[in-house]
Amino acid sequence: HTNFLIVLLGAYTLEKTANVVDMVILYLSFNVGLYGGIYTLNAIADYEEDRVDPAKSTRPMPSGAVSVSGAWAFLAGLWAFAFTSSWAYFRSLALIEFYIAFIVVNIAYSFVLKKVLYMRFISAAMTAPLRLCMGATVAGVTCPIPAALIAYFFMACVQSTKVRVEKNKKDKVCNGWPPKLLEALCLVGVAVSFTVEFPKHKLFLSLAGVAITTFLGLSMIRDSHASFLLGADVHPKKKEL
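^ that's the sequence the OP posted. Answer follows.
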């Protein structure tokens, strides 16, 4: 649910602000409905891998508490709710297009791109600028390209840090990326985007700076921080006898 903060940034820090009721409805439709279905899709895609992962094997599907067919039915119901509620309230074709874009990106990531060398982190980050731009659309403004790039580079760093912690590869090559290389490239991208965007949208830049410092800075220091801030599934360390 913390990823919805990116939607809120787009809705409240780029010139105009969205109606609070609109954002509540969007949260239920998008975050609960659409993304509930997307997370279910991810669980289906990762079913076999999660069954042998000590940190994930107790989840509903890997543990056998929920069947694959039951997960597909749950996904269909959530997506039906998402599209129906969005159209019923907003009557916005633009939001429907955003919803479809999220589904396409996540299907491509879950079933193809996450397994391709060098693509896992940079493809997973594509949803961040979509979130920012969707929030801006609800507020009635156009999302600036530098702001969207900041969201993208930030999320690429988040994905790399999270997966490295989960797989205990903070100092090893992961998905083809040497340690800290992708993070360094993304931070350069953030710095350039900040420079281009400044002094416009100072509130957005300030909050983005706080998010980068908090979510990435602390998460790189300790695994427990990554678990709390990024939702990383940290493997329990075995006690030495």
